[in-house]
Specification:
By secondary structure, the chain is of the alpha/beta class. Helix content is 36%, strand content 10%. The protein has helices at 3-12, 69-77, 111-116, 123-134, 160-177, 187-194, 200-203, 223-228, 233-249, and strands at 95-96, 102-106, 143-146, 181-185, 208-210, 215-220. Helix 1 (3-12) runs antiparallel to helix 4. The chain is globular and about 50 Å long. The two termini are 21 Å apart. The protein binds uracil. Uracil binds next to loops.
Amino acid sequence: MSSALRREYLAALGLETWVVRGKPPGSPETARADAPALRDLPEPRDLPEPRAPGAAGDSSPGREAGVDWPELRARVAACTRCALCNTRTQTVFGVGSQTADWLIVGEAPGAEEDRQGEPFVGRAGQLLNSMLRAIGLTREQVYIANVLKCRPPGNRDPTASEAAECLPYLEQQIALLKPKIMLAVGRIASQNLLRTEVTLGRLRQQVHRFGLSQVPLVVTYHPAYLLRTPADKRKAWEDLKFAREVCARV
Ligand code: URA
């Protein structure tokens, strides 16, 4: 990617080129947002806490195991496993390339996603698109899904039982997709996928593993959080570069 194009994507993320005061751009003291040297990746490590038998991503066959894409989509559309089926406009299955290397996992559909039936189409979705573009990916090249396929009313957090009922759908999406890397965006997605209460700040910048196939999983901030807390966009950019490095080594 050309440096001009990258600067454009970083600007879209709200990450402008840093220029040391009094020094012209391009001088050795000019520090760019993407300048930090690549360091060795932390070794892949075990998940923070042991999984309960039957838990998401463990070695037991999932409830939807063996189901193909069309059947899985139909099952999700007809799902009445939790009370969210009474308040949803429609289910939000997921979108993107079924041969994608990258799987982006968010929390749950919001109001706009519930209306349109597609994940990450609101303001947070626009920022997610910019985050992807910053590492050279288009929305069409990745697959995007959520832990929950239905919108929790008022955008409240998913309950543990809603997540438990819904996760087998995501597990089967992962089994079909066989991604090279998963990027969990936000605390809710990260904690549900990793079955941990460890804070997002402590889960970042590590290679976790998901499921029987041990898919590398990297954690970053949710774009909706970044819209409220733009100061953390720089950390998100570090996470994206980290994930890109991990993916390159798979
Ligand atoms: N936030 C999410 O976590 N997922 C969406 O699809 C939209 C907003």
